[in-house]
Amino acid sequence: AEAISGAVSGVTGTLSAAGSIAMVFFFNQVEASIGENVVIVLAKDMELIADSKGNARVIAGSLSASRSNIGAGLTIGFLYDEDSVKAQVGDHTKITATEGKYTQRSSSDMNALVITAAAAVTASAVGSALGGNFSAIVLKNEAVSSVGNTVTIIAKDDVSITSQQLNDLYLIAASAAISGGLTAAGGTLNVTVADSNAKTTVKDGSKIQSTEGSVTISSLTEEQLISVLASASASVSGSGTAGTISVLVSDSDTLTDIGETEIRAKNHIQIRADGSAKLFQINAALSAGAQNAVGATVSVNVLNRNIKATVAPSLIIAETGDVELGATGDEM
Questions:
Q1: Do the Cβ atoms of 191 and 139 come closer than 8 Å?
Q2: How does pLDDT run across 171-205, given as a tens digit for each residue?
């Protein structure tokens, strides 16, 4: 999905204003499900896969260039993405892959690029220039892979039950104001909220077995949020003011929850929950004025991570390999 907008204004008079708005609203619901009391027997591989991959582009710009008393450029960019991806096996179902493997996966992958710019230039000796840039981004995504109560899954080769939630966001936002007269003011504001959830569950009474391979039950969240914000102002005979404000709220749940079950494998058994986040921000403000010049940057980051791998009282047997239960968080 893409939204691209632009505006240019250039007049001689009292006011020259340019405004641009670009918005993308992204909603996805993807589900692959097997119902209750189903019996499946097959010789080859069994796959239950729900995948969602989204690409969003928001590009907006405005330019006011004139000899007016007031020159103003305003740009607004907005992205809202909400994905729900589920791979589910209902209660009391029996699945047997006599000569193959069993793969159950839910995956949500979002890649977003937001570029916004606003500029105002007035050559009037008594003029003022105002450049404003506002962007808001909301990412609210979940991937769920679940096995119901009293389910039996047996495969000769590997058994894999996983969920993964991936977010990549790249933001570039800039504003500029140049006045040949009194005042030049530029401001850039961004608010980003990322809510990522990956959950893999196996409920009570279920049996998961690989007769010749390994068993993997896991959940994964990965976030890469990169933003560059800049603002500049210059006034030939007056004052210049420039500022940037960036607010980032990142909240994620990565949960692997195993009930009272039986898990067997010829080789290894791996039960994991892993979450990683890479946050990179650059904020810059530059101002120049014949009388006064003020530049300021504000950056606020709020991170909340919940990463758990839990197993209720269960029978877990790896005949020739290892059993690994682990949860890790990696942030930078």
A1: no
A2: 999 888 888 777 888 888 899 999 999 999 999 99
